[in-house]
Structure formats: structure tokens, C-alpha cells
Amino acid sequence: MTKHGVVLGPEDAVVAAAARHFSFPPPRTGGDSCRKLAAQVDLGAAVMGSWLDSMKASSPRHRLMAPLAGAADAEHDDWMERHPSALERFEALAAAAKGKQVAVFLDYDGTLSPIVEDPDRAVMTDEMREAVRGVAARFPTAIVSGRCRDKVFGFVGLEELYYAGSHGMDIRGPTADPNNHGKPAAEFLPVIEEAYAALVGSVEASIPGAKVENNKFCLSVHFRCVEEAAWGALFERVRAVLRDYPGLRLTQGRKVLEVRPMIKWDKGKALEFLLDALGYAERSDVFPVYVGDDRTDEDAFKVLRSRGQGAGILVSRFPKETAASFSLRDPAEVRDFLRRLVDANAT
Ligand SMILES: [Mg+2]
Predict the structure, then answer these.
(1) For the segment 216-273, what is each residue's pLDDT rounded down to a tens digit?
(2) What is this enzyme's EC (predicted)?
């Protein structure tokens, strides 16, 4: 298949590319990691405290409560110096990309759609969909999300994109064949199903507002509707369930705890996988643009930094530690940025 002036394989090329650079499925990490998890789980109060701190730190509600406006302004200005707006610096970005093959990688929640109380209602606007459609008509474009690939496809609804769901563990190219895609973590499916049922029974049943989502290759425990006083109890319940599943590990995103197979696979690996599948892995004249708002997107930003290519763009209203080079404030600015990308390549 030829698209955007490069020869792209169908999904079987995606899988073949994965086989060259990653063992497929990727190797399970061994007993050491399982022991590490056990150690982590058993550290008790100290670990619990640090997880709670982390859960609170990633909550926009806490940032909104930050006092000392003057100090916050200075911190924000300093951060913006180091991570300037991709809109304000658009001309410089376009100049850096000139003559190169641009490829666009987009997180979904908090990037293309606002973070909402009910994760099932995280729909994107028609204006955003049109902007993404415009970008995909000009550049290879992928959605890279922690969510189940089918769910993200349901939200976005554009056949012409690549979709990397479950943090990139479930990848599908822009064709209509739903069965032909990469499944780096397929061997974990039965375990994830079992852990999902256990988490629903333990966490959803006892913590008001908690919602466990089965993303097929990973599980999300959403606590955006849980009273902060119950976050500790929620974490304890999740941790207790995971003691029975040493092959699974716990990570944290924005108002969500995520349970994933203990394999080395993240959004950075997904980005490398997709670049390789597009035939760009060894090319120096490629300009990947990755836009994301979450801690899990940092792995992709780091890949771009280490490749010395393209631009990582963090979506955030608040200063935070990031490997991204640029920033955008919210999904509305992401939409405007995508429109400018389209306009700059209108001819
Ligand atoms: Mg996100």
C-alpha cells in the first residue's frame, strides 16, 4: 500500500517489523521483576504514602488549589521558557520539519478529548475529528492510547489512522481488517480477564465512584469520581488483588491506576514500533510529532529526545517535569495546532 509517498505495508508488515526489532511477543520479564513487585507490594505504609502522594500530585484539583500566585506565575514563566507553546513557536517547528517526512502521533484522553468524570463519555468534538482527519490526509497519523483499541476507535471513528491501544500493546494499521494486527501481549489475556473480575468484585463493589475498565490488554481503575478520603482504601484494595497476579504490574496515570502485563512495552516502544512499520526507523529525514498529556506519554517523549528527531508536545496547563520540548494548554489548543499543520501543508 502506498500512502503519503512512502510504501506502507499492511498490518502483516507491522507485525514483521515488530519481529525484527522486538521479540514478538516481547519477552516476559523474569522472576526478578515479579519479586520486585512483591517487594513493592509488601513495603506497606511507606509505599502506600508515596502512591497516595503521587495520586494527589497528578490531580488537577490539587494544582488548582495551589496558593502563592506570584510564585506560581514565576514557576510557570520559567517552565514556558523551557517548554514553549507549540502554537506560538509554530513557524520554528515548521521550519525544522521542512523537507522532512512528518508523522503525527496523538494520545487520546486529555489530548484529543477533555478529561471527563465518566471515561465512557470522553468523546471528541466534531471540530477535533475534522482536524485529525485533515492531518491524516497529509501525514501518517496514529492514536496511541492506554485504552482498548476498539474503544478509542469507537471515539475517533476514522479508518485512515493507525490505532495503538493498551499503551501500544494492541496495534492496528489503517485497513478495515480488524483481525490482522499486532498483539504483543496476547498471552496475558486470560490473566487480565481474571484480574478484571477480581478488581470489579473488590474495588467497584466497595469504593463508591470507583470504575474498573477492561482495556483488553490492560485494566484501568478510574478514581476521578472517588472521594479523596477513599483513595487510600482504593489503592489498598487494588494492591491486595494484585498480590495474586505477580505477572501484572501497577502504574499510575491521571486519576487512574493502571494494571498491565509485566512486559517491557510502553508508549515509547509503540512509537518506535510504528516508526519502524512506516519504514522510518533508519531515516534521518523524518519529523515525528508526538502530542500527549500524561505520565505514560513521557516514554514517547524520551524516544524522540534520544533519536534527536521531531517534537514532543505536552498538553498541560501546569508546569510539570517532562521530556517534551513544547507544550499546549488543552485539547482546544491541540485542535488549533492540528489545523495549523493542515493549513501549512494545504498545497
Ligand atoms: Mg492522556
Answers:
(1) 778 999 999 999 999 999 999 999 999 999 889 898 888 899 998 877 778 998 899 8
(2) 3.1.3.12
Distance 113 CA to ligand 1 centre (A): 9
Q: Model confidence over 285-330: pLDDT tens digits?
A: 999 999 999 999 999 999 999 999 999 999 999 999 999 999 999 9
Whole-number Å distance, alpha carbon 43 to ligand 1 midpoint, is 29
Mean pLDDT check: name the lowest of 8-17, 84-93, 214-223: 8-17
Transcribe 43-55 into DSSP letters. TTHHHHHHHHHHH
| Given the residues 12, 107, 118, 120, the one annotated as active site | 107
Tell me how far the alpha carbon of residue 214 lies from the centroid of ligand 1, in angstroms: 17
Give residue 68's region: left, alpha or beta (phi > 0; psi -120 to 50): left
Centre of ligand 1 from the C-alpha of residue 221, in Å: 15
Q: C-alpha cell of 11? A: 498490518
Residues around ligand 1, an ion, CB closer than 5 A = 107, 109-110, 293-294
Would residue 12 show up in a list of annotated catalytic residues for this protein? no
Q: Report the separation in Å between the CA atom of 109 and the middle of ligand 1, taken as the mean of its atom positions.
A: 4
Q: Which residues contact 10 (CB under 8 A, 6 or more apart)?
A: 1, 173, 175, 177, 180
Is 127 in contact with 333 (CB distance < 8 Å)? no
pTM of the model: 0.66
